[in-house]
Every structure is written in structure tokens, then in C-alpha cells.
Specification:
alpha+beta
Length: about 100
């Protein structure tokens, strides 16, 4: 299992560097992130669980993600603009 907190901190300088993502599911960073998350943790509900004040929260269990994702996949998510909220232990994005 990977440590999400340390990876999001380690790769903080890669935030929104989508041009560095090589094998894209989409040319849109948010869609690439959503598709990658759905590949890692397939679901049957909306991927956006809530929104407010220019931010969305993703319907992804961070502990489950830490069990299945690789460091490279977390880096891709960061490059797409995905952030990890330590306080609530969830993934979020600005809109």
C-alpha cells in the first residue's frame, strides 16, 4: 500500500503539469483523472460526490486507492489537478 500523503507532498511541484502525462485517456485533464480513477476503482455512482466554492470532491475511497494505485498513477492524478485533503482524507479538484 502506498502512502498518499507523502506522494502528494513529494510531487506537489507536478500539480497541473498535464502536458507531462504520456498515455492519456483524454486530452482533458479532468476526464483523464476521472477515467484513471474509474479504472483503478470501478464504481456505479457519480465520481463527483459534492461541490462548493469552486471545488469538487471525488467519490473515491482514499484507503482503497492507496491499496491499488502505483506511485506513477498518483503522479498522473496530481498532474491532472487532483489534490489530497488530509483533514477529510479525500480527493478534490478545483473547478
Amino acid at each position: 500500500m502506498i502512502d498518499l500523503v507523502s506522494l502528494f507532498e513529494k510531487y506537489g511541484d507536478e500539480y497541473l503539469e498535464f502536458q507531462s502525462v504520456e498515455n492519456r485517456y483524454s486530452n482533458r485533464p479532468d476526464l483523464h483523472a476521472f477515467n484513471l480513477l474509474d479504472t483503478l476503482l470501478p464504481g456505479h455512482t457519480d465520481i463527483v460526490s459534492a461541490a462548493g466554492h469552486g471545488e469538487i470532491w471525488l467519490e473515491v475511497d482514499a484507503l482503497e486507492l492507496a491499496e491499488v494505485a502505483t506511485e506513477e498513477q498518483i503522479l498522473e492524478l496530481i498532474r491532472c489537478g487532483v489534490r489530497y485533503n488530509k483533514e477529510y482524507e479525500l480527493l478534490a479538484m478545483f473547478v
